[in-house]
Write a structure and sequence with these properties.
Length: about 140
């Protein structure tokens, strides 16, 4: 989708809902989709991919980030996350940390739905204040 007009929150959420259809969630039966909008206008989908060894499960948001970075994109504008209807879903702590890695200024827009299905938007900085990041490693005294 590079070169097209930037898509709005509703369109990005529609892409996340579509990505949800690919979820591999036989254990939780809690399917999640994500759509990550890159700075070049590309929308990268992700879904949760569960594993019989439960700890090997990866969330939809991290799937999208890993796919985007693998494809050469690491500048992102927004991410929409779609879970089951009827609940307000926010990215888990691990996903907040991974999203923060690629938005060290905290400006990445995070679009979710509330329990009634209405769109809500915030930023990764609001969801993960005082995040640990690369500058902390740089600032540390090294023996
Ligand atoms: N999950 C996501 O993919 N994203 C979220 O924001 C919350 C949780 C997944 C992980 C697991 O496959 C299932 O939802 C239940 O935790």
């Amino acid at each position: 989708m590079a070169g097209m007009d930037p898509i709005d929150d509703a369109a990005l959420m529609a892409a996340a809902e579509a990505a949800r259809g690919a979820a591999h969630a036989p254990y939780s039966r809690f399917a999640v989709g994500a759509a990550l909008l890159a700075a070049d206008g590309t929308v990268v989908p992700g879904c949760n991919v569960e594993n019989a060894s439960f700890g090997a499960t990866i969330c939809a948001e991290r799937t999208a980030v890993v796919s985007a970075v693998s494809g050469g994109r690491r500048r992102f504008v927004a991410i929409a996350v779609a879970g089951p209807a009827g609940i307000a879903l926010g990215p888990c702590g691990l996903c907040r940390q991974v999203l923060s890695e690629f938005s060290p200024d905290g400006s990445l827009r995070v679009v979710t739905r509330d329990a009634a299905g209405a769109l809500r938007a915030t930023t990764i900085g609001a969801l993960l204040p005082a995040a640990f990041g690369a500058t902390d490693l740089d600032a540390a005294a090294k023996p």
